[in-house]
Design brief:
The protein starts with a helix and ends in a 13-residue tail after the last helix. A five-stranded antiparallel beta sheet has the order 1-6-3-8-2. A three-stranded antiparallel beta sheet has the order 5-4-7, with no helix packed on it. It has six helices and eight strands, in the order H-E-H-H-H-E-E-E-E-E-E-E-H-H. The protein has helices spanning about 5-20, 30-55, 65-70, 75-85, 235-240, 245-250; strands at about 20-25, 90-95, 135-140, 150-155, 180, 190-195, 195-200, 210-220. Helix 1 crosses helix 4 (about 75-85). It is about 25% helix and about 15% strand. By secondary structure, it is an alpha+beta fold. It has a single domain (about 5-250), classed as Jelly Rolls, CATH 2.60.120.620. Bound molecules: 2-oxoglutaric acid. 2-oxoglutaric acid binds near residues 97, 137 and 200.
């Protein structure tokens, strides 16, 4: 990793280790984020229609958003992630996270894969003291406390309890001590240790809160997830991705021999 990148990302890595989260700004430059947001918002309907006809786990959502995909190996972002997960990383899951205007929600606190205790493919408590997943929420519209900025509880990445832990008596629907909403300008990325307790928030505003969640994993983690959220990317679509993004998605490419990792 280049020295200048290590230096520029040091405060973020420190915050990740101590607090379990940070917001990296300007990952998608201001002059292109509007076009990326539009692509993501308009393609969700195409994706939903495709999935209705062909099945929910038939095509990876990244296939529907090539402009967005270009940013996933952003140098500063990957430098932060690689310092926490090791230098070989892959993307485990990608999902639309668009909250419509006037979206109402009771909190639903959880940790993400591989620590989501409601999913079959989780590791058991007590979680080992190691970073095994990084969740990134790409803010394609500004995140505020009025439009559904994600609820997070800083420092919970080292708490051995969990809101979905049956014996832990926390309750995933309750406001929690220390909770705060993550905010940032469009083009920023909320980065979380996947153990961090976090939740959707209501969006009482009149505008959409548009985001995509992308989860990164170390190379050695099993990403098969029993077929759920393992949708593939057509080979011709995969061929169009920038090389450094191919590296993150090669395990999901259809009809392509593994070349990038060899
Ligand atoms: O959309 C959000 O603000 C939170 C999403 C979330 O909790 C998740 O993807 O695990």
């Amino acid at each position: 990793m280049a020295d200048n990148l290590l230096k520029a990302t040091e405060p973020y890595v420190t915050q990740m280790r101590e607090e379990g989260w940070c917001v990296l700004d300007n990952v998608i430059p201001a002059n292109v984020v509007g076009a990326v947001r539009e692509e993501v918002e308009t393609s969700e309907a195409d994706y939903n229609e495709f999935s209705k006809e062909n099945g929910r786990w038939e095509r990876n959502v990244i296939s529907f958003m090539p402009k967005f995909a270009e940013h996933l190996a952003n140098e500063r972002l990957l430098t932060v992630i690689q310092q926490l997960l090791g230098s070989q990383v892959r993307i485990s899951q990608t999902e639309y996270k668009i909250r419509p205007p006037h979206y109402e929600l009771v909190r639903a606190y959880h940790s993400d894969f591989p620590y989501d205790l409601n999913q079959k493919w989780h590791i058991p408590q007590p979680f080992p003291s190691a970073v095994i997943g990084i969740t990134t929420l790409w803010m394609l519209s500004e995140f505020t406390t009025e439009n559904g900025g994600t609820w997070i509880v800083p420092k919970t990445h080292v708490d051995l309890r969990n809101p979905r832990g049956k014996e832990d008596g926390i309750g995933d629907r309750n406001p929690l001590d220390g909770e705060m909403q993550a905010t940032g300008s469009a083009g920023s990325v909320l980065i979380m240790d996947s153990r961090i307790w976090h939740s959707n928030a209501e969006n009482p505003s009149a505008g959409k809160r548009t985001a995509v969640v992308v989860r990164y994993a170390p190379w050695w983690l099993n990403l098969e997830l029993f077929g759920v959220n393992t949708a593939t990317i057509p080979g011709e679509t995969f061929d169009q991705l920038p090389d450094n993004v191919k590296l993150l998605y090669e395990h999901r490419a259809e009809n392509r021999e593994p070349t990038v990792w060899i």
